[in-house]
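ok so I'm stuck.
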Amino acid sequence: MKEDKLRLRRKIYRLVAEHARTLDNLDDVYEAVLDSMGEDISREEAEFRVRAALGSFEKGKIPEQVDFPFISVVEKACKGYQDGCACVDACGTEALSKGDMDGKPVIDINKCLSCGLCIVACPEGAITDKAEIAQTINLIKKHKRVYAILAPAFSGQFGPDVSEEQIKSALLMLGFYDVVEVALGADMITVKEANEFLKRMERGDKFMITSCCCPPFVRLAKGFRPKIAGLVSDSVSPMIAVARFIKAEDENAKVVFIGPCIAKKTEAKLPELKDAVDCVLTFEELDAIFEAYKLEPGRIDVKMPLSDASHDGRIYAHTGGVSAAIAASIKRLNPNLEVKIRHGNGIKECKRILDAIEQGELEANFVEGMACIGGCVGGPGKLVDPEVGAKAVDAFAKRSQIKEAISNEAANILIEKYKDKVELNSAKM
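replied:
not stuck anymore, here's the structure
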């Protein structure tokens, strides 16, 4: 995406947050943002972009609850497919095609993985997703116990001198009741999947396929590869797991997930999962809220401690982290069992690995797939380069007092306490 289009996108997010802070009615927010836009773009294009930033692609009343679909083409922004366009190439399932006479892309929603890679690939910013910025702000206004759950990739996203503890403090200052690491859920799912791997190997399965934390990869493996769909772990994602445990502990809780992933917006609304997360924000959207509220996390002196997760739960944020975490727990449970790992780094590499499994040509018994290059740190809602994010994630992981997920007593206690109440299995996607 061109820099000027990225600035426009973030300007709209900031304006939405500014007006949602003082206006409760979303239609009033819509009108106020449009009036603040100036002449950067045509009125028709502005209307579509502002509606998307408020969670709608349709004309009419702005919805309180955001729903499918989550990705659309901004018709007035697209100049037609030409040299420099990369949206079609970015799509791993041919959900995007040059569908009409002037070459403007058309999205086949039934093929779409909701990964959002086409959004950042489009130089004109002519493909966009829905945001829940105003819905999140209203949620905080209306409910006393709104929890923010932070994806493991949050480390380093808001500047090299901004600590994880300062981000937690900033979120509390926004009005969140508490802040919990999604890496706590990663610890829970790590142990679950380690045990699942042992059972699968004992019964003679050749492979186990994960990444539970990557909805596009799960959908790619289960929705497009019927021959191997049964090899995919049935675990819910760490996001769903930690949200469900929060709600089991606090019946009045509302939960907002914050991460780099646009596909999480889709995952959170799936019928079998929508009990867990109420709203989803990307780091890009949260940064706009901080700006609108004039909050600078790096200047906050009070630094609230973050100690929910193990080293291994935190490294879920980058390619190789999930399999390293699960392999470590497998080794603790059965030191004699060999884990032969293969990583899919990016959607195209994931497809090649799945092809190899179908053809019986893959020398591995454990497969991890990440749709974004670099893993979650490379997600379309990120703020920094994946390499920078990965280094920050590893540095934060090293600060954990707990090395392996299986040793996280807080996670183990929660699982035991709510084992009959919290569901950690799902048919996902």
